[in-house]
Amino acid sequence: MFRTWDGTQIPNWIDDAFDAALKKFLDCGGTLAERASGVSPTGVTVYIEQSIFDVYVNNSRFGTAAGVYIPDAAEIHVVNFYYSQSRGVVALASDYLKYEFENYIAFQVGIQAEDSNGDRPTKNWPCDAPPR
Question: Which run of H or of E encompasses 101?
Fold first, then answer.
């Protein structure tokens, strides 16, 4: 499937991604949903990068990424377009934004967003996620 990239849709992608990420938390119900309902998208700045980018942790190069949430800076960075030859997958910023907004909300509510491999730590995440 071929998809075109239309930069004029970025504001909609950001809004839709935050709403979808928040819904995932609200669907859990209980105290997690209650804490998530207080998270605002205005607490984070979103950057759309032109290509995959280096990520630094404590001034050391951590690796290359197509998307990342940086808690200390309150920033989400996602690549605008990415083709993975090894996976044969095409992804746009809209594909990465939801995942990084989930990381943002997880950090705000105090649960673990990713394990050491960058995967969700539990099968029913975020509903059964361990605290961070």
Answer: helix 93-109
Give whole-number Cα distances, 132 to 71, 116, 129, in Å. Answer: 13, 12, 9
- In the chain, alpha helices (H): 10-26, 30-36, 93-109
Residue in the structure block whose two tokens are 């990520």: 55
Residue-wise pLDDT for 44-83, tens only, equals 999 999 888 898 878 888 888 889 999 999 999 999 888 8
Residues in the chain: 132
- Partners of 69 in the β-ladder: 76
126: preceding bond cis by omega (within 30 degrees) = yes
C-alpha to C-alpha distance for 29 and 127, rounded to whole angstroms = 8
Contact 55/68 with Cβ under 8 angstroms?
A: yes
Q: Are 4 and 81 in contact (CB under 8 A)?
A: no
